[in-house]
C-alpha cells in the first residue's frame, strides 16, 4: 500500500467511525455521512416540484382520509424533527412515497388498490419507515465512501445527495430500494401502524395482492419496492410482535373505513 492509498484508507476508516447512526425502532447501526439538513432540503425541493406538477386529488374525501391516517402515524413516529405534509396527488401512477423530512404523497392511481383505511395506513407507514431510517442518506453515505476510495478526497463535500435524489427528474427521487431496505421499512411500518391503532393484518392482505403471478398489478410501486415471497414471510414473522403493540393501543381503529373504488365509504371495514 503506497502513502496515498494509505491516507485514503485512514480517511475512509475515520469517516466510518465518525458517521454511524442508530436507526430508530429497529436500532440497526448504519453508516451515515450525509447531513440530515441537506437531505430534508432536497426532499422539500423535490416535493414542491411534485406538487407543482400534479393537481390535488379532486375527491376531497381521499385527502381527508390521508390526513386522518397521516395524523395517526406521525403521532407515534417519535421525535423525527420532520415537518410533515400529506398530499393525495392526481396521477394514474400506482405509487406513494415519503421524501426526507416527512413529505408524503399518495397518487390517486393507487387508491383503488386499498380495500380499507388500514391498507392505506400500511403503505403510508412503510414509506415513512424509509424516511425515518434515512435509507436515502445511507445510500449517499456509501457513495461518499466509494468516492474516497476511487477518487480520493476531492469529491468530499460535493452535493451527492442532490444527485441521488434526482432533483428535477420525474422519478429520480423515488429510489428503487434494496431488499434489506424493504425489510426494514416493512418492520418499521408494521410497528407504526399497530401503535397508531390500525390492525397490522392489513399489511399482509395488502402486500399479498402484489405477490408473484399477479402481473397486472406490477407498476411503479413494485418497481421501487421489489415484492417477493421474502416480504410476505417477513411480515408474517413480525406480525405477532405487531399484534402485541396493537393490543396495547388504547384507541384502536381496526381496519378503519372500507374503500370503494379508492373512495372512503361510511362503512366500517371488517
Ligand atoms: Zn419500500
Structure, explained:
The structure is a single chain. This protein starts with a helix and ends with a strand. The longest helix is centred in the C-terminal third of the chain and has 20 residues, at 229-248. It has 10 helices and 7 strands. The chain has one domain (3-263). β4 and β5 (103-107) form a beta hairpin. It has helices spanning 3-18, 36-53, 60-74, 117-132, 135-151, 160-165, 179-195, 201-208, 220-224, 229-248, and strands at residues 20-22, 29-31, 85-89, 96-99, 103-107, 257-260, 263-268. α4 crosses α7 (179-195), α4 packs across α8 and α7 (179-195) runs parallel beside α10. The strands form 3 sheets. The protein has a 3-stranded mixed sheet with strand order 3-5-4. The chain has a two-stranded antiparallel ribbon with strand order 1-2. The chain has a two-stranded antiparallel ribbon with strand order 6-7. The protein has 270 residues and is mainly alpha-helical. The structure holds zinc ion. Zinc ion (ZN) binds next to α4 and α7. Zinc ion binds at residues 126, 130, 177, 182, 185, 225.
